[in-house]
Amino acid sequence: MAQDGRRARGDASRRIVLHSATDLASVEGLDGLSIGRLAEASGSSKSSIATLFQSKEGLQLATVAAAREIFTARIVEPAREQPRGVRRVAALLHNSLAYSKDRVFTGGCFFAATAADVDSKSGPVRDAVRAALIDWYGYVEAQLRHAVDAGEIEADPEVLAFELVALNEEANSRSLLMDDARPYALAAAAMRARLLAAGAPAASLAPLASPEPPP
Amino acid sequence: MAQDGRRARGDASRRIVLHSATDLASVEGLDGLSIGRLAEASGSSKSSIATLFQSKEGLQLATVAAAREIFTARIVEPAREQPRGVRRVAALLHNSLAYSKDRVFTGGCFFAATAADVDSKSGPVRDAVRAALIDWYGYVEAQLRHAVDAGEIEADPEVLAFELVALNEEANSRSLLMDDARPYALAAAAMRARLLAAGAPAASLAPLASPEPPP
DNA sequence: ATACTAGGCGAACGATCGTTCGTATACTAG
DNA sequence: CTAGTATACGAACGATCGTTCGCCTAGTAT
Question: Rounded to the nearest 5°, which phi and psi values hold at A122?
Fold first, then answer.
């Protein structure tokens, strides 16, 4: 069975539905993601969605997985072009800010929106969101550890990763709430300054350079 | 009419309901805050809540106002005992971390939870949450500006306020999602280091000192 | 051709949502 | 006492929720 037309058709439908689902969930949260509105947004029927994903929880888990793929494709994959260490960290941070600023999801960063939605609950959905963020935090920290080991910077990787991720998420949330793009420039400047203070060579921080000079 | 027993009775009821409402909203969000569950949690009836607050939007606005009072009483008011400038900033940050860590609301910081809920929407509820956070950000920044003017530290108040608030919010969200108190210690350490790097006297940062020495 | 599986949809299920109505109970104002 | 106002509740409203059922089509397997 090299190919199963039925599965292929189902996968295509899932893809279409999940595209709407990730976007809707970034605005309404994983709890506010309703099958009815999703059916309307994706052009299929409630019952189709229910059978494609078995249950709402199945839909939520698939939505998280789909968002994770987009997150990786937009942020992590492109950064792999940079050598490990500070250069890759700078690329990661730049990509992450751009992914939020460009509104890849209508509601900004998918995981910022959904983490707040599930962080006080329990169950597989929360676990899936948590796993995605643990991976992300761990990857940033690992790259910083590499930079420290290579002598590029001098810092505690855990604390520095915490600081940089905090700046990234603050930019996302404040930009959304205030409807203002300035927080991204603010965050980039703070990230750059923080890495410079840790001893990073300025040339390795090009992705975090401000596009326009401060007035 | 020095006192109106009817209004007094209503106000008492509103107080009780709002106590449950702020806690429920910190977990479920302002959208997930349902009148039915709130009625059950607060011991009154759906119709009573509807008449006390006119509509769900009225309830949401009253809930934000109630949470704002608690936020101010827990964080801003106690910090006023400290002199303006770095000492007050340190007190603000310490109080803010404690308010999250002590789970004054079951879902952690009320405004972190609800900001994520409303930041992609529009209307009076979003405006109320935004106004509360603008006030908070502005207060922190004003205290930092005072510290700069007094020569206590050397920094851009806007950027530094952004950094410190980001650390505070990251501690809240990560602690909730990971069910771990360590992010608070991490954030406090980063705040302290950041203020020290800006030239703040160590004695003024006592509230941010780690309770236990690092191993 | 037959049996089986995966989608896909309309219709309906019970549950819960926010809201409204009618009615009863305090309390005030005149 | 009377008229008016602010709670308070039960009951019901229409709408939407997640889910299930029946029925049909598309594709696979034997």
Answer: -145, 165
| Residue B212: predicted pLDDT | 55
* 102-131 on A, CB < 7 Å from strand C: none
pLDDT of residue B2: 55
- The 10s digit of each residue's pLDDT in A24-80 is 999 999 999 999 999 999 999 999 999 999 999 999 999 999 999 999 999 999 999
Q: Could you tell me if B108 lies within 8 Å of chain A, comparing CB atoms?
A: yes
Distance (Å) of CA A102 to CA A94, A99, A107, A176, B208: 12, 5, 11, 12, 36
Q: How many CA atoms lie within 13 A of A22 on its CB side?
A: 23
Kindly report the pTM of this predicted structure.
0.95
Interval B127-165: pLDDT, tens: 999 999 999 999 999 999 999 999 999 999 999 999 999
Extract the runs of DSSP E, i.e. beta strands, from chain A: none
User: Would you call B32 and A32 a contact, using CB atoms and an 8 Å cutoff?
Assistant: yes
**Residue A209 backbone phi and psi in degrees, to 5:** -65, 145
The protein residue nearest nucleotide D8, judged by CA to C1', is: B48
Give the integer Cα–Cα distance in Å for A66 and A85.
28
Whether the CB of A64 is below 8 Å from some CB of chain B: the reply is no
The answer on pLDDT for A123 being more than 80 is yes
Q: How far apart are CA B215 and CA B210, in angstroms?
A: 12
Q: Is A143 exposed, middle or buried (0-12, 13-18, 19+ CB in 10 A)?
A: buried
- CB atoms < 10 A from the CB of B38, how many? 24
Strand D, nucleotides covered by protein (CB < 7 Å): 5-12, 16-22, 26-29
Contact by Cβ (8 Å): B93, B168? yes
* A14/B131 Cα distance (integer angstroms): 40
Phi, psi (deg, nearest 5) at residue B126: -60, -40
What percentage of chain A's residues is helix, strand, coil (to nearest 5)?
75, 0, 25
